[in-house]
From TrEMBL:
<keyword id="KW-0540">Nuclease</keyword>
<keyword id="KW-0479">Metal-binding</keyword>
<dbReference type="GO" id="GO:0046872">
    <property type="term" value="F:metal ion binding"/>
</dbReference>
<feature type="domain" description="DDE Tnp4">
    <location>
        <begin position="145"/>
        <end position="297"/>
    </location>
</feature>
<keyword id="KW-0963">Cytoplasm</keyword>
<keyword id="KW-0539">Nucleus</keyword>
<dbReference type="InterPro" id="IPR045249">
    <property type="entry name" value="HARBI1-like"/>
</dbReference>
<comment type="function">
    <text>Transposase-derived protein that may have nuclease activity. Does not have transposase activity.</text>
</comment>
<feature type="region of interest" description="Disordered">
    <location>
        <begin position="312"/>
        <end position="336"/>
    </location>
</feature>
<protein>
    <recommendedName>
        <fullName>Putative nuclease HARBI1</fullName>
    </recommendedName>
</protein>
<dbReference type="InterPro" id="IPR026103">
    <property type="entry name" value="HARBI1_animal"/>
</dbReference>
<keyword id="KW-0378">Hydrolase</keyword>
<dbReference type="GO" id="GO:0005737">
    <property type="term" value="C:cytoplasm"/>
</dbReference>
<dbReference type="GO" id="GO:0004518">
    <property type="term" value="F:nuclease activity"/>
</dbReference>
<dbReference type="Pfam" id="PF13359">
    <property type="entry name" value="DDE_Tnp_4"/>
</dbReference>
<dbReference type="GO" id="GO:0016787">
    <property type="term" value="F:hydrolase activity"/>
</dbReference>
<comment type="similarity">
    <text>Belongs to the HARBI1 family.</text>
</comment>
Length: 352
């Protein structure tokens, strides 16, 4: 009878040594690589420490802080492979899993609404009105609205709906900034083929906030001419006449540039939004966009600057914003146009 084969001994698992970046790097280097300083990383971690804490007692389990750091590195660069190349330790498979887990925790409505809030109280709206009026004398403004396209890889379902007017796949994101470049509202769920005006029309901002009277009278958003004119949404004149109309357009352009610069700041801070986001499905891309918006506001609250691009990143202008087509005059709401004329005559009769 043949002797039994000897039992194969399992080779002990070998773990890469993980770098303790919170203690090894100073705040300047942390901001450069992860967009937050040490206190900021711990602050964000504490928001989701419970969901990110692994209940097992196994060695080498990533701590909640490390999971946040891995996600921040990905959002800052848009490159998952850098997370495992930066001496953080996790394998590429672990990095992907951690990013998914951490995005899920941070994108919960309970977390997002702590940091992205639209001004509706008299105190909040008045503060925004004062801040915006200091820019170019435009009265009654509580936010500047625009759409921006975030490039994605072709989805497996409804692929054609995600192709925008420039021929690439994207998510069309509606975003509102206040005068201090904080995001007060963001809608990230619509395919790139959807027009900015439709996104606004079907948003809770239109149906709940403004149309139901939650915002005090005399409060306005500023939008470009791709949006319909409303009593609460002021757009520029397409062919302004000398006088009040030209004065409105001049102040409107200067004031509304806040949203264009705000989008640029958001995409410079989180480079993942600059290039093609190669994750599936598109709903996960929407999580990335909303988490970046929330983290941007946290950075603003903590006065954290936007670092210059790293050597392994390419700093580019914002090429993803698409100017929406202009609707024919006959299709523009007459009530909104009349209100704009009255507003111009009341506030811009004299050149400010």
């Amino acid at each position: 009878m043949a002797a039994p084969a000897p039992l194969r001994q399992r080779k002990p698992r070998r773990f890469r040594e993980r770098k303790d970046v919170l203690h090894d790097l100073d705040d300047g280097e942390l901001i450069k690589r992860y967009r937050l300083d040490r206190a900021g990383i711990i602050f964000v971690t504490d928001l989701v420490r419970g969901p990110l804490t692994n209940p097992t007692g196994r060695n080498q389990v990533l701590t909640p802080e490390m999971k946040i750091i891995v996600l921040l590195r990905y959002l800052a660069t848009g490159k998952m492979q850098l997370c495992s190349m930066d001496d953080l330790g996790p394998s590429q498979q672990t990095v992907s899993r951690v990013i998914t887990e951490t995005l899920m925790a941070l994108s919960s409505n309970a977390i997002l609404t702590q940091f992205i809030t639209f001004p509706i109280t008299p105190h909040e709206t008045q503060r925004n009105i004062v801040d915006f009026q200091q820019i170019a004398g435009f009265p009654g403004v509580i936010g500047a609205i625009d759409g921006t396209h975030v490039r994605i890889s072709a989805p497996s379902e409804f692929e054609g709906e995600y192709v925008n007017r420039k021929g690439y796949h994207s998510i069309n994101v509606q975003v509102i900034f206040d005068a201090k470049y904080k995001i007060t509202d963001i809608v990230a769920k619509w395919p790139g083929s959807v027009h900015d005006a439709r996104i606004l029309n079907e948003s809770s901002l239109n149906r709940v906030v403004f149309c139901s009277g939650m915002v005090p009278d005399g409060c306005h958003l500023l939008g470009d001419s791709g949006y319909p004119s409303k009593k609460w949404l002021l757009t520029p004149y397409l062919r302004p006449q000398p006088g009040p109309q030209s004065n409105v357009n001049r102040a409107h352009k200067i004031t509304r540039s806040v949203v264009e610069r705000g989008i640029g700041q958001l995409k410079r801070r989180f480079h993942v939004l600059h290039g093609e986001i190669r994750v599936q499905p598109p709903s996960k891309v929407c999580q990335i966009i909303k988490v970046c918006a929330m983290l941007h506001n946290i950075c603003k609250d903590r006065n954290i600057y936007i670092p210059a691009a790293e050597d392994d990143e390419e700093e580019v202008d914002d090429p993803l914003h698409l100017q929406p087509p202009q609707p024919p005059a006959a299709q523009r709401p007459r009530e909104g146009l009349l209100y704009r004329d009255e507003f111009a005559d009341l506030h811009f009769r004299n050149d400010n």
